[in-house]
Each structure stands twice: as C-alpha cells, then as structure tokens.
C-alpha cells in the first residue's frame, strides 16, 4: 500500500501536493478507465481527467500543466499531486506496486533443487530458484534473486541486489555489478565469433579466454547475447539499458548510460561512448569508435568512426537531416531517372534506342 503521505514525505522533490486527504492509500496503479477507489492514477490530458473523476481513485497525479484543472470539490475523493514529467512520476512510484520479487520468493530462500557448489559464496537474503546452478568459487551478493534454471558458472561475480531471471546464463569469470537486471534467455559470456582459416580453408576456433564485465544499474532484455573477450574484457558500463534481442560482440566497450533498442547488433572490438541512443535494428560494424552523445535513427548502419556528437541515420550514415532527405528522395529516383533520360535524349546526348530501353 502506497499512501499519499509517503509521496509527500519522501518524494516532494518530484511531486507537488495540491490538496486532499494524505491518509489515503493506493494498492494498485491503473489507467483512468480501469481505476478503482484504491487506485493510483496518472493523468496527462483533460479526457483522462474526466475519466478518472468517474472512478474516484485514491491518489490522482496530474501533469504540472494541468494543475489548474484539479478542483477541490470535483476531486474531493482523491488526494491530488502534480508532476513535471509523467514518465518520471511513473519511474518513481510504480516500483511500489511491482510484485516482481514474489516470482522468486514464493519458493523460499533456496529451492531444494538448486545446485550450489560447496565453494560458492551466497550473500544474505539471496533467493535461489528451482534448478538454478551456481558454480565453484562463484560469488552472489546480498539480496539477489536468481531465477529457475539460471546458470552462474565458476568464478563469476554477481553484485548486490541484482536480479537474474529464469534461464539466464552467466559464463565463467564474468562480472555483473550491483542492482542489475538480466531478463530471460540472455547469455552473458558465451564465446565470441573468432576463427582462423588454415591453408586448406578450414576454420579453426580461437579460444576466448577473457570475460564480460557489466557495471552497476545495467538492465539487459530477453534473448540478448554478450560475448566474452578473446583475452581481455567485453564491457557494458554502468547505467546502460539493452532492449530485447541485442548482440554485443567480443572485446566491445559500451559507455555509460546508453540506450540500445531491440535488434541492435555490433561487431567485435568496437567502442561506443557515453549517452549513446539508437533506434531499433541498427548495426555498428567491428573495429570502429563512436564518440559520446551519438544518436542513431532506427535501421542505421555504421561502418566508420563517428567522433562527433549528434544525430545520424541511414546507410551510408549521414547526419539525420540529410538522411531523412535521402530517404524521401529514394522514392522519386525512378521518376528522376526517366526525366533525366528525356533531357539527355532531347539534347542528343543519349542514343534514342538506349533511352527507350527498360534497362536504361
């Protein structure tokens, strides 16, 4: 139960109290159309406010620009707050309603089927789900949650308050920082894609002896693959967020606080700076460097260094405004080509038969 008094006392830097009974509390967060008298509701426009009033939620949070629309008589059943950013308001308060921990704690602190090597170190208040495997000399920090069928191999390190969902793989010697979250079916520290070709053309695998080092407060979505380095480390720096289905190749270095949207792929030994943002299905090739504060539009392809901050898109990569013009112009290429042939024919610069050919 989240009370209005808690919001006022602990989050006054984010929320401005407007009016109402601070003793009211909410047990769930709902959209306005599904609100109950025990709900917390966010409202960002007049239509949502009108809908919320019909349901009389316990706690009503409106966008700051709508503060003047809240009425002490019409909204008397709710305790009302305003917030500058609805998304930031959600980031702060939705955690009070997140019952994710019950997915892990329902089994008790250590499920009897969990396999833990005698030399592993398990922190206090850490929950181990059914059939998880913790290898020799692995170290799991305090207050962690390890899901069913998750594997943490020998010598791996998991920081405090980190959540590994079911079917996560953490390879030998890899390190994950504090307060991270790794979603199902993600692999941390599988071998990189490295081969030498002998004189007969046969690929010979290059052993990967390095590891993966993940900083603090990193979140990685489902079905991602982060490859271990050949001899050193693959880095995902603190604060970075990876969406589902991302591939990070061996020896890469991802800077702090980046956003990597679904389908992002990168080649080996590439370094990406801080505050990177990419749209979905973007590709960054191997052995290049991207500077800080680079933004890529969706489906971009990067094949050379991008040292300067800015927004880019397309393939070949261009500054975003130019890339958008190029994308628009591509749709006119056939007409432009046909008109150019007519002009060249008129100027007798093009053979008549060739100009009329469909291959021209």
Strand content: 25-35%
CATH architecture of the largest domain: 3 Solenoid
Shape: flat
Q: How many separate domains make up the residues?
A: 2
Largest sheet: 11 strands, mixed
Euclidean distance between termini CA atoms: 71 Å
Q: Total helix count?
A: 7
Output the CATH class name of the largest domain: Mainly Beta
What is the spatial order of strands in the main beta sheet? 10-13-16-19-24-27-30-33-36-38-39
CATH level-four homologous superfamily name of the largest domain? Hexapeptide repeat proteins
Low confidence ranges = none
Could you characterize the architecture of this molecule?
The protein has 360 residues and is of the alpha/beta class. Helix 2 links the parallel strand 5 (39-43) and strand 6. The longest helix is centred in the C-terminal third of the chain and has 14 residues, at 333-346. The radius of gyration is 27 Å and the shape is flat. 36% of the residues are buried.
């Amino acid at each position: 139960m989240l009370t209005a008094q808690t919001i006022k006392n602990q989050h006054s830097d984010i929320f401005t109290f407007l009016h109402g009974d601070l003793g009211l509390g909410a047990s769930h967060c709902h959209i306005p159309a599904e609100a109950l008298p025990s709900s917390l509701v966010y409202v960002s426009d007049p239509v949502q406010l009108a809908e919320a009033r019909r349901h009389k939620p316990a706690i009503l949070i409106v966008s700051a620009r709508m503060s003047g629309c809240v009425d002490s008589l019409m909204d008397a059943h709710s305790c009302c707050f305003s917030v500058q950013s609805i998304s930031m308001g959600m980031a702060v308060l939705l955690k009070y309603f997140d019952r994710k921990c019950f997915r892990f704690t329902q089994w008790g602190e250590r499920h009897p089927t969990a396999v833990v090597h005698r030399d592993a170190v398990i922190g206090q208040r850490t929950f181990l789900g059914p059939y998880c495997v913790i290898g020799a000399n692995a170290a799991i920090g305090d207050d962690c949650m390890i899901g069913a069928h998750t594997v943490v191999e020998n010598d791996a390190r998991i920081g405090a308050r980190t959540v590994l969902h079911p079917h996560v793989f953490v390879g030998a010697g890899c390190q994950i920082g504090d307060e991270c979250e790794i979603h199902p079916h993600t692999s941390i520290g599988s071998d990189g894609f490295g081969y030498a070709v002998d004189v007969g053309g046969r690929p010979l695998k290059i052993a990967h002896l390095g590891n993966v080092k993940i900083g603090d407060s990193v979140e990685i979505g489902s079905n991602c693959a982060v490859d271990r380095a050949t001899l050193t480390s693959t880095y995902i720096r603190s604060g970075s967020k990876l969406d589902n289905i991302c591939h990070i190749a061996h020896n890469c270095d991802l800077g702090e606080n980046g956003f990597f949207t679904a389908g992002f792929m990168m080649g080996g030994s590439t370094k990406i700076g801080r505050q990177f943002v990419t749209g979905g299905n973007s590709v960054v090739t191997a052995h290049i460097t991207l500077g800080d504060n680079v933004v890529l539009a969706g489906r971009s392809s990067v094949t050379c260094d991008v040292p300067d901050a800015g927004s880019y898109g397309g393939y070949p990569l261009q500054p975003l405004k130019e890339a958008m013009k190029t994308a628009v112009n591509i749709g006119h290429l056939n007409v432009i080509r046909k008109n150019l042939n007519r002009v060249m024919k008129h100027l007798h610069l093009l053979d008549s038969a060739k100009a009329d050919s469909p291959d021209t």
